[in-house]
Amino acid sequence: MKTEKIKVGIIGLNPDSQWASKSHLPALKQLSDTFEIIGVANSTHESALKAADVLEIPIAYENPDALIASAEIELVVITVKVPHHYDLVKAALEAGKHVYCEHPLGNGLTETEQLAAIAARKNVVAAVGTQMVVSPELIYLKHLIKDGYVGKVLSTTLLGSGGPWSDEAISANYYLYDKTNGATMLTIPLGHTLAGVTKVLGGFDTLTAKMINHFTTVKLTDSGEIKPKTSEDQIMVIGQLKNGAAISIHYRGGVSRGTNLLWEINGTQGDIQVTGPLGHGQFVPLTIQGAQGKDTKLQNLPIPNEMYEGLPDNPVIRNVAGIYKRVAADIKNKTKTVPTFDDAVVLAHLLNDIEKSSKG
């Protein structure tokens, strides 16, 4: 029996971009039995026409409003910069469309709460792209903790490198260095990874935070221009989770010559280490090692092969595809298996608490 495909419109798809065309597009093509890409809309019609031509998409809409209003589109995917999320998501929700928006959902807590309230009122599938929480590695890790591999969790430590947010950038990424845009090291690499940490270990009870900006200017390497930098490049958090465990976090801008992602979970019966090549837990391959009982050193804890069945090998595409698979299931079954806008609100509260604490 042939099933009706979910018709998708993407806002913010450029063949030269490093995200949507290299993650959302191949993920949707991987799931072509379930989804059909109908159209694209960008900041200009010319840009949309180029994307549609190069990427073989049927319709180039004149603007995002036209895509949202189209009867052809069921699911609106929003992959533009954070400051534009609110207006586009709100319009899509008010039009009764299902939405998949990249994280951060809103530029700050207030926007996120408002969008979640609209989504609840419209009763549509509203997914936020915290892709780490659907990765096979994280799902397996959650099973390990739930099944008592480490016993009672006593503490957890998270160390990560954000990648950007040092003293150099290309012009296209400069918006990340202007804190008012809401696309900072706190909200993106640490935010994504905290979505995974709290999915496994539960939320925070208390916290104290400090954020530091070592570099108040950034050099644009492609133009030589020196511009202001207001986004912090060092973030430190200590606190206690609701399960009683102590937590310590340090994220830093740039890339380390040593460790770039280390998440350790220590318990009464064992220890687990999760490592990766960068502090963006949402798009890097994760390795899990553990030891328990009389073990004297860590050993690999391989993820069962069946957890990767039907998913791409590339972790960036795989985790985005994981969100899409859940979106499809939620549309079909009227369930809530995908990270929702309500989940985005919980995460936004945590990030807001870190921000407030850092200001004293």
TrEMBL record:
Record's keyword terms, sorted: Oxidoreductase
Root EC class: oxidoreductase
Any Pfam family the entry gives: GFO_IDH_MocA
Enzyme Commission (EC) number: 1.1.1.369
MF-aspect GO terms: nucleotide binding; oxidoreductase activity
Domain Gfo/Idh/MocA-like oxidoreductase N-terminal: 6-129
All residue ranges annotated as the Gal80p-like C-terminal domain in the record: 136-276
Protein name stated in the entry: Inositol 2-dehydrogenase/D-chiro-inositol 3-dehydrogenase
